[in-house]
Amino acid sequence: MWLITKLGWYRENRLSSLSRGGSFCVLSGTSGASVGQGTCPLVPEKDLERVICLKSEILRIREEALRELSELDRPEALQELKVKVLGKKGSLTAMLRQMGSLSPEERPIMGQVVNEVRSQLEQAWEKRSAELERIALEQRLATERIDITLPGIRVPRGHYHPLTQVIEEIEDIFLGMGFQIAEGPEIESDYYNFEALNLPKEHPAREMQDSFYITEEILLRTQTSPVQIRTMEKLHPQLPVKIIAPGKVYRNDDDATHSPMFHQVEGLVVDRGIRMSDLKGILLNFSREMFGESREIRLRPSFFPFTEPSAEVDVSCMLCGGSGCRLCKGTGWIEILGSGMVHPKVLEMGGYNPQEVTGFAFGMGVERIAMLKFGIEDMRLLFDNDLRFLQQF
Amino acid sequence: MKVSLEWLNQLVDIDQSAEELAETLTRGGIEVEDVENLNKGFEKVVIGEIISLTKHPDADRLLVCVVNVGQEEITIVTGAQNLLNGDRIPVALVGATLPNDLSIRKSKLRGVVSQGMLCSREELLLDDTVGLDRSADGILILPSTAPIGENFGHYLGREDSVLDLELYPNRPDCLAMVNVAREVASLTRKKPHLPKWAEPDQVLSLPIASDLRIVIEDNDLCWRYAGLVVEDVHIEPSPEWMQRRLKAAGVRPINNIVDITNYVMLEMGQPLHAFDRDKIEGDVHVRPAYPGEQLVTLDGVERTLHKDALLIADDRQALGLAGVMGGLNSEVTKDTRRLMIEAAHFAPVSIRRTSRRLGLRSEASNRFEKGINAYGIAASLGRVCDLLQDLKAGRPVSFVDEIKNLPTRRQVILSTEHTSTVLGIELGVSEIQQVIEDLNFEYKESDGLFQVEIPTYRSDLEIEEDLMEEVARLIGYDRIPTTLPQGDQTQGRRTPEQEFRRRLRKTFTQSGMDEVMTYTFTRAESDAQWGSAKHSIPLLNPLREELGVMRTTLIPGLLDVAARNVARRNMDVSIFEIGNTYWGDEHPLQKLPREELRAAGVAVGKSERHWLEQPVSYDFYYLKGILEGLALEFGLKLEYRVAESQSLLHPGRSADIYVQNQYVGFLGEIHPSLGKEWGLDRAVVFELELAPLFARIRQTVRAHSIPRFPAIQRDMALVVAVETSAEAVMAKMKKLGGDLLQQVEIFDVYTGNPIPAGYKSLAFSLRYQSLERTLTDEEVNLLNSRILEGIQQEFGAERRK
Ligand SMILES: [Zn+2]
User: Fold this and answer.
1) Which residue among A303, A309, A390 places its CB closest to the CB of B514?
2) Which domain, by its residues, includes A177?
């Protein structure tokens, strides 16, 4: 029935409107009408009849395709349908082949109709395809939900010993100030450990350090200071000497604040015109980098056999900032290192002429700094190596 | 050195509180370790008088006392039974915290308000020097002269504070009150008021004793010996003021003579000893002990003396250990009528040895060890004469003074300009002059050069720099500005070896191993087991026996750490250490030993459980993987060979490690029997010498271009005998494959069904690639089957289907 109606309409429009974009929607408007699966009965006698028949077949194919398209739910089916209709052996392509029977005038018109439908279908496909993709994506996003609170894959990560961390930090600060890192043996001769440092045998200051002896002349170094002498011997007459010397040292002591083995970092600067104010400047820089920008330092007179004048160096408390607390025992200051101007005898022992050069030296306990920095109360924890302790750092 | 502020105040005017003075001294270089307030605990304890005593209305055993405490009368409930009306007693007022830490609060006892507490001797932690006999049973009863309302501590003479000085070894002079007073005077710019005997060169105007001769037999061990002869000796307790000062200094009062010697020691710094003059027969000898010589010392102990102990003896026998302790045979007793009071110099070394050897250390030996001023010896006896007369304890009649040796007097030149340069402070001549005057030193000045007379009591001042420190500390270290060195700029950089150690440490931690640090001294047996007993170096005086030798290997220390952690239920351990081992080449050591840097690791257990992954067990392949990562990092080629004659490791699971045919260490599971010893199940260990590795690390990288032609991959699964090493198979494959075989990797190892027992399946992935052209499937197939044939022939391998 609808064919007749269409025919009437076709006559009036000579099919031309089909070539105008936008009119397709009029046709679409009728697509709601249902037609069976049957093919159009071709009526070969008259061109017009044939055209009408072909045309209706094309429209049927279109309607069919659009319906199937709307019912599709798998992207793969989309492709199958495309092949079925637009492929080489597709139903629409078959229509083109039948056009051979049309008159030369009708042919282009029909061709245009087919192409028109083809591009309509392709657009519809694209739209449906995008829609399906969107639906699929929505579905995927809706189902792919993980518990983001579960832990991630573990990349193994070991821990540096806290003392290593502190030593490297100290090294980096002094490297940044142009110091080199010097080293010396842990098993030392009495000469380097004491005598060359202005501590002759039976000097009362030797008592400050209970030493581990191997023979009468060989011992475990009680301080990193022998590296001062070794470095000067190696470098003289070169200037400036500017080194730090980190390393293990040993004293016969064992309690919450002493360990028989511990670490020191020694520092030595020798050059023409080195002043005690330079010592203060370098140590202020160090303290601020190590303990914070707002730290201040103060020097107190002290005694070391290998420096003169000597100074104990306090840094303003990193916990209370100087107002007084438990850490600084209410004083606002924390003692962090010993220092002084290199004793002329020590410069001489190192091969330098004390009339020409001066120098300063300092030494700090790494354990003490680590304890301050990390809030460790008992030094023995550092050598107990309990993993629950070490894995905090 | 304990310094009574009351005593010090007599020697120099002090206008600071004890705490302020402590700060002044500390900032001036005399560290005050502690300020002790002797009145502590007595701040709110006053003397009261009992006005009335009535029974408590509701408690038979309690008394209600009304007590006059000066300003007011208060009611106190007590259970004490030794009280009478009119008794004077110490009363702790509300708010007091007593020396035994008891806090006193207002309370109600059975309905009656009690406003304090009456105190017993125990509660006040007092000895029996105050109070009446009746006090034994309870509340301390004071003499009826005790002033009502006065602070009880003040009544006992406790208003004093004591500064505890922590002296550096260069300032033994501050072991004398007069020198502490000088120090305070210099730092606070006051003039001290010292007894005239504080000047070391004072002359003692007494006749020379005709009947007493001093024989110094060793001029090095004794420079000077003086003896003061005292007659009409009258032994009694010393006066209260002297006892109080001695107690404040931590010295127990004994009798007037002993107390005078101790008092002068504390005041002047010169230790003294009193002998009973009538017990000395003939001359006084200062000499080393004879072999096997014996002496009963004042503490009643008979001692056999070492031959280098210095003695004071008469013609017959030893009378005392010089500077350490007197002998019982010449002790001053209540029957003593004549004295010889000794003031001497003894060599610090000798005194130190003797006091150490005998375990006898005293205020006197401490001063001799640190060094006394030999110039002040006679002057200190002058001070003794004054006190003997003041206390009517005896009559000095004569003295002897034998001088063998005195240190040279020193003059030190101090340059204003040099001082300014070294300290980095612009100092004027007048500023330096002021400091020297504040120090009370004699000097001459011209053109900013000071020629300073060093007083004999300041033995620490030897060179110009010593005086610079005096200048700096008197003007204050705070005057030193902050500057930076002006010389050539230098570049700070780690040496390649330092950088290598740092990267090595990083490689281990990034592989998941925790760094530990162990003592470098260890048990001799464990070190011998894993290291070399022949080379290990024993300590003469180890802290403990189990820390007796310097390690030649890091392994026992690491196994100890692992075992300790496992015992504490830290079951999964993967740790490493980089540190020295110490190798002695002879015994005893003649020269410094070799210090050889090593890296070692121990792993036991497995990685933590994880919801996504299987835990990694810490076994041979775990550590091997870490070492392979290390080799990659440093461009090293480590070779693993089956360990030879290794008794410490599992024979089937251990390897020796070589680099370019040099042995550098080992890797393996520890032998099951050793694991049992250590309490570690299947621990794996490695140890590497670092020097040979460092010598061979890749210095530079030369980049290869990325291949332009595609690679072709072939897998090959083979069944071989279990003992066939995968490495050997791969090596053969590479040899057969030539240049076109770019890479061989093993991706599966399998034993068990259907592989027959005694065999294993190895699956390899072979990558073929040419740098010049695209390979065809055919030529790769041909090459691949040639390799397969070769392997089949060499290893009797079967292709797994
Ligand atoms: Zn603080």
Assistant:
1) A390
2) 162-390
CATH number at residue B14: 3.30.56.10
Place of tokens 């599971």: B669
The whole-angstrom separation of Cα A117 and Cα A23 is 12
Query: B502 contacts in A (CB within 8 Å)?
Result: 168
Same domain, B247 and B332: yes
Q: Would you call B483 and A280 a contact, using CB atoms and an 8 Å cutoff?
A: yes
**Residues of chain B contacting A385 with CB distance shorter than 8 Å:** 516-518, 561, 564-565, 575
Q: Which two tokens stand for residue A288?
A: 């601020």
The verdict on residue A340 lying in a domain is yes
Q: Provide the residues around ligand 1 (an ion) whose CB is within 5 A.
A: A 317, 319-320, 325, 327-328
pLDDT band at A25; cut points 50, 70, 90: very low
Domain end among A116, A143, A170 = A143
The per-residue pLDDT for B39 is 83
Render pLDDT for B302-349 as a digit per residue (tens, 0 to 9).
999 988 899 999 999 999 999 999 999 999 998 999 999 999 999 999
β-pairing, A307-316 with A297-301?
antiparallel
Range ranked top by mean pLDDT from B129-133, B516-520, B724-728: B516-520
Is the domain of B188 the same as that of B253?
Answer: no
Q: How many whole angstroms separate alpha carbon B396 and alpha carbon B232? A: 9
Interchain proximity A303–B589, CB inside 8 Å: no
Judging contacts by C-beta atoms under 8 Å, the chain B residues touching residue A185 are: 592, 595
Residues in A touching B168 (Cβ below 8 Å): 205, 302-303
Percent of chain A clearing pLDDT 90 (strictly above) = 53
Task: Report yes or no on A114 lying in a domain.
Answer: yes
DSSP annotation string for B702-750: -PPPPPSS--EEEEEEEEEETTS-HHHHHHHHHHHHGGGEEEEEEEEEE
pLDDT above 60 for A44: no
Please report the pLDDT score of residue A208 as a whole number.
Answer: 61
Reported as a single tens digit per residue, the pLDDT across A370-391 is 999 999 989 999 999 999 999 9
CATH number for position B260: 3.50.40.10
pLDDT of B62 over the 60 cut: yes
**Per-residue pLDDT at A43 exceeds 60:** no
Give how many domains chain B has, as a whole number: 6
Task: Flag whether A154 is in a domain.
Answer: no
Contact at CB, A154 and B487, closer than 8 angstroms: no
Beta partners for residue A258, in sequence order: A255
Structure tokens at A29: 């408007």
Q: In which domain, by residue range, is B431 found?
A: 410-479
CA distance B71 to chain A (A): 37
CB contact under 8 A, A213 and B540: yes
Task: Tell me: pLDDT of B50 over 60.
Answer: yes
ipTM of the predicted assembly exceeds 0.90: no
Distance CA A11, CA A16 (A): 10
* Min distance B550 CA to chain A CA atoms (Å): 10
pLDDT tens digits for B711-745? 999 999 999 999 899 989 999 999 999 999 999 99
More confident call, A1 vs B523: B523
Provide the residue count of chain B: 801
State the Cα–Cα distance between residues B382 and B398, nearest whole angstrom: 11
Q: Which residue of A has its CA nearest to B508?
A: A158
Q: What separation in angstroms does the CA of A272 have from each of A156, A236, A352, B422, B465?
A: 51, 13, 11, 11, 16
Interface residue of B515, B614, B626 to substitute, partner A, most A CBs within 10 Å: B515
Residue A125 lies in a domain: yes
